[in-house]
Amino acid sequence: MQDPSNDLLTSTFTMLKTNDLDPPISEPKPLETKDPSKEIYIPHKILKFADQTMDSPEFSHHKRHVFIYTPAGKPIYSRFGEEIKLSSIFASLSAIIRKFSMFFTSEAKVSQMNVIVKNDCKIVLLFRENLCYICVTKNVSDSTHLLQNMLDFLNIQIISMITNVVNKQLTSKENYDPRMLLGGTNVSIGNCIKNGLNSPGIFLNSYMALPMSSSHRNAIQTVIKDNRHPDILYSILLTPINVIYMQKSKDIQFHPQDILLILNLLQSSASLRSSENWIPICLPGISPDGFIYAYIYFFNKNVGIIMITNEISNEMFHNCSQLGKNINRALSEFKLFDIIEQNLQNLPYSIDVFNSKKIKHILIHNINNKQFTMPKFNIYGQTPKEAKAYVRKFHGLFLEYLKYGRTKKDFRYLMKGTEEMICLFVYQEFCVMFACSPFLEINEVHNIENSITKWLKAEESHYFLKIVEK
Predict the structure, then answer these.
(1) Rounded to two decimals, what is the model's pTM?
(2) Which domains does the chain have, with CATH numbers?
């Protein structure tokens, strides 16, 4: 494990490509693979409007603001505007929040205050060690829990970029300024915020597997297992939005947040999806205190392999590079790229697969495996307003499950509105949420549940994958 404590004091975090290493490494020309007909990930537009300040009329027109600062009030990040130009608002926020906290609670319980609502404004707070996160939203109907989930994911993202050493430095030096460490990460942080608000994967703390027949996934498993190395912790065949196959070392515990961070990283950098890379990365699920390394090789604009290792030598890069070339060659020879591409071009898959015209939308969460599946809309990137509305509806339903249903094997919950009814039920390790007409009778709702359980029995291996341990 590389200790970054000294580097944090003198330099910014940069992603290293293979040509940054010393001595330089020559890269073999990659095998040509069939170019996909379309890129499946449509990135968010992350606009910072750095010229805006508190005096700019446009600054107050944004729907939501996100701020990160230290307990001393030093700015770390602002979703809009330049942090230095907004230093006065950071100082004011720090002082006001501290006063509010001390007024309503004892100083020892500062972190218990998590939301302030005033007229047409809601302020959601999250305190993680020495980092303070605030989301200010104009929409008071925004779910506090959803915004806190977004801020929590943002905290994990910040730790992934600069490691938990930042908290240790702030403990010993209250006036320490970690902002310089985040240079060039605006797109990644902005993408993290967008995903936290609009993707079900964040509030479920889960990822979505690419739908694929078990026979084809087994064929891919054979290819990956034949090209493994004892020092590789994770080997993941993936797209920018889905996991196709995953193999991990028995020596580490699986944390879905690490997969979400990897997906966010790939979505935020087009260069990582177009070349061979060898970069330092902190995955808090493995260790929040230092960097390990990731070998990333995208065979085409949609499909790539990522290998995570704690061995940082040039020799390890060459080993990963050779394994990547071998996997590329085998997937091509066995026509598995064609199979993957066919499944990718079917995304988002049709809701008709559930054989019920009464289902308007559906989200299925595998509680044990930390996976989910969802038809109809893209799960990351640009999505229509209807998709965002369903994320908020399903989140509200899932929150009821977290409150009342986690300890119950047979749990059902309905939320009936004027235009549709949102339903949740638990079947074995699955939490199923779906939308239907509000005029359906209870027996019709039960019929929908039965059709979904039959579908799960028949299609589980197609839509959910098993993590292979080596």
Answers:
(1) 0.89
(2) 9-42+207-345 (3.30.450.30), 62-202 (3.30.450.70), 351-469 (3.30.450)
